[in-house]
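Lab meeting minutes (informal)
Scribe: AK
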Amino acid sequence: MTTTETSTVFSGELDKDTALATERLSELESSRTALPPKASRSSVEQQQADDLLTQGSRLRNDFMTLHTAEVYDRLTDGYRRELRVSDLAYAASEQFPLLVPTREAIAEERQLPLKHKDGASIAQGIFVSHVLNDERAGFHLIHSMTQPTPEAVNLLSEFRETDRIELGTCYLERVGEVGYLTLNHQKYLNAEDDESTYAMEVATDIVLLDDRISVGVLRGAHSEHRKYTGRRVFDSGVNLTKLYHGQVSLIEFFIERELGLLNKWYRGHSLGDGAVSTVEHRREKPWVAGVETHAIGGGCQYLLVMDRVVAQAGSYFNLPARKEGFIPGCGNLRLPRFVGERVTRQGIFFNREIYVDSPEGRLVVDDIVTSETAMDTALEHAAHEAIGTGPVGVNANRTQMRVGVEPIQVLQRYVANMALGQAYCMSSPAIIRNLELAWDPKRRGGVK
């Protein structure tokens, strides 16, 4: 069997081009499914599959280059619907068949280990990258991603009655004007995955929606892990167990995490209709983090959007995503503002750990404490200091600082590139090799 590439010439009319793209993509998909599963392919068959993937990617890119604005307008009913990235992509799979994988296709591929996947998420990366690359559509998508989640809206009245909500991998408590969001993903030492990140986003939404709360505090729970028993652990980065076994998603994790959870800590909820503007209208609150033991990868990224960071002496943070073979979220965008580009390169490219007590660490961390009791006191003090002058002045200054260093358009441009780059990283043989060298999957086993 051989694959022969043929060019597809689009007319520029959306409906005609949709039919043409669907026909051609269907042919490519039929050729791919005629091959054995990836785990059983010969090198020749794998090259054929790669060629088919390349052709499909080129076709999708050509189609979206012509039609991104029309596609987004249709999917959002003329910008009246506020869809999350995943909902937008899955809606596109229904209205523009094979342009992006269906929810069912992604769920099926999710059952395969990463090394046996056929790169379905690349189509998602192409789609999202084009949407974010469009000034109006991308701005509206970021606006949509910073709306309260339905789960948070539904849980708000319960939280107001009990001042505590359990969300499986984290929990939220209110003490006075402070909302304490505690990471409690015990099985994986507070490592991040689709479910835990979304749970934190729901909790963050509740903090933002509850007008009794003026400031959020982020901290890790006491660990049940034998190595850290009785100690608090902040965050252990992406869940490498689930990543290796294909259980970490491109859009539900890597992209929605940046445009949802972290963006809500940094920018709060977007108000208004999402029209392109340099003036921000938001519901936002300051955030304080308490780092104990370590803030690995994603945990380090958390610190870069916090308003104050208190750390336990001897703890450290790093961004080792290059070692695994993917992009560390918006770490490349934000860490240079704190420690400079040279130290950032050392961290991302050469796995440097930065201890909070070091000169570089003090550029990220505000206060260092030596005991858990001192951490409790420091976090309470920092939270009250953040709201001592009133929320209006605090949030107005948050906004001014943010629009000066990272206006939404900068984030939009960054994630437009990240969506595509991350998709190719996730489909690269290098990520499997790196994980097997650095993480030892045979020792760690599977997921349940």
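Next up, CB showed the second protein from the same session:
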Amino acid sequence: MKSTIIFYGPFPKKNRVGGYERCNSAIVTSFLTEYYDFIPLKIYSIPLSGSWKVLFYPLSFFLGCLVDSLKLIYLIKRKKPTIIHITSLYKWHIFREWIIVNISLFFNIKVLFDIRAGRFDTLYYKTNFIFKFFTKNIIKNSFSITVEGKRYIDFIQKEFIRTAYYLPNFINTTDSKVSPRDYCKNDICKLFFAGRIVREKGIEELLLGLEGVVPKFNIKLLLAGSIENTYKEYLFNKFPVLFKEGIIVFLGVLDLDQLLKEMRDSDIFLLPSKHKGEGHSNAVNEAMYAGLPLIVSNQGFLSDLVTLETGIVIDEVNAKNIENAIISICSDKKLLKNMGEKSRKMVIENYSDSVVLGSLKEIYRKIIVG
């Protein structure tokens, strides 16, 4: 008989491609369903935005705590779960998670607390004693702790004297063969960016760096993701030559099949993010699976994924560093090919669904047997 696992966290909205949501959805629909019955429990929130969201935040927060608690109690009574798997979020979400953990304890249900937030440790040190109290209580009362970033293993050990298991983001792989492919076809080096097209992702530094590369190489930059019209217009005005000459192409929001197709036809993946909460990006896994060398910033967990054999980590996000990184890879086709092949090999061996979910299956087994 299968054990039942309630999976509590965010789940995808319409047209949502990345983030925690897709990872959560991928877990509860994966091959693990052969061994466990998953019950998704989606975090409740009132769909508000702008000033309305600010005005009604206390009410929304209270209702979220109440609704999620009642739904959990109902599911525990009806489904008799063995494990509650909680995807941790930021800041005051910790209070809601504390309630969920303590309800689970009341009913003698074991908790797996899954930390993915890209600055969980930083916020812990910066916030007040209330936040720290709830965090400590959750870590203490959770049966197992998993983390998306390697640095959290030491953080959990140091602050809470608990063992944390590395559970990185993963990609569904259907073909594990590292197949040869052509790079810079027709002497055009295609650069690829995927994610929200916003300032904090280093977009402007990327385009400034591209201006220095253009005189030396035949370059095209493909930008996949959502962008607000005002910011798009701002970029058009700031970088008119790049747009006028067709060097930059907006692809819009792509579904997963379209994204992988565009990546397989590209040569280098860039994510020079300045976002302090950057985690283990789905897009990085997908780029590696497509056989792309990586140029990423040293933010969040990105440096966990990139070695000297698979790409370049930029310590400081600025135009010159990005320019130099692009030139160093584009100027050596042998290096480009080797990096791309090793990038694909690395994601298959370390971040594929079979490897990561195999680890999660073992963690579940240990929780169940105690």
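CB comment: The two ends are 18 Å apart (CA to CA).
No objections, moving on.
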